[in-house]
């Protein structure tokens, strides 16, 4: 495994793939900034919204819930108030990162062909690229995004429960795993080959995507390295495809 990781990282640093990473990241940042601009009616409005978070030194995240005895009690005790606000900010940051990551993985999905073609030319020139239809890909993304959002909403109440709050990462990993494997296999394989690979190698794929996911959780670095995950999974999918297509 270490040899494949080293080879994948070397491929990631190749000019073609690295520029793909920078380009897709730039497009994602542009989309996010443009969305924020229209959502808040200008960047000055965003600044005003941020300034409203503070009022005379007090955070306002839980002001609307003061009628609740429990929340009112917690707010009046400084240590609990700080903890609640910290959890709120952390959760808000997690949601923003989660959304940004989803947008970025979607954008770079359009560039997966460039990455996979580069890997094919270097190591797997004898393997023909088949690919799945555009309609199948659209349906896959609609279904995957819907399930990820539903999982996130269902697990959101566990966020304030220690240990169980780690479940909030489950929908993020689900989306990461499904889209990463599909983005690669949908370019290389036929529908039957795709099903065969994910069924016969589901444990191996989950281990590999989980390792990539743990890296992806590192802010900034995890996002920049997304093409590395594509390269890493591409090597695995290509090897499995080679085995599938070998004459019996």
Write out key terms for the chains shown.
two-stranded antiparallel ribbon, 75% helix, mainly alpha, 2% strand, 248 residues, single chain
What does this 3D model show about the protein?
It is a single chain. The chain is mainly alpha-helical and 248 residues long. It has one domain. It is 75% helix and 2% strand. It is built from twelve helices and two strands. It has helices spanning 2-12, 15-39, 43-51, 69-76, 78-109, 112-123, 134-155, 170-188, 191-200, 202-216, 221-224, 226-244, and strands at 54-55, 58-59. A two-stranded antiparallel sheet has the order 1-2. A hairpin with a 2-residue loop joins strand 1 and strand 2 (58-59). Helix 7 runs antiparallel to helix 8 and helix 8 crosses helix 10. It is globular. Mean pLDDT is 79; it is low at 54-61.
How many DSSP H or I helices? Answer: 12
Number of strands: 2
The coarse overall form would be globular
Give the total of domains.
1
Output mean pLDDT.
79
The quaternary organization reads as single chain
What is the CA-atom radius of gyration, in angstroms?
Answer: 22 Å
Order of helices and strands: HHHEEHHHHHHHHH
Across the major sheet, the strand order is 1-2
What's the story with the biggest beta sheet?
A: 2 strands, antiparallel
Percent helix: over 70%
What is the strand content? under 5%
Coarse structural class: mainly alpha
**What separation lies between the terminal Cα atoms?**
27 Å
Q: List unreliable stretches of 5+ residues.
A: 54-61
How do you describe this structure in short?
The protein is mainly alpha-helical and 248 residues long. It is 75% helix and 2% strand.
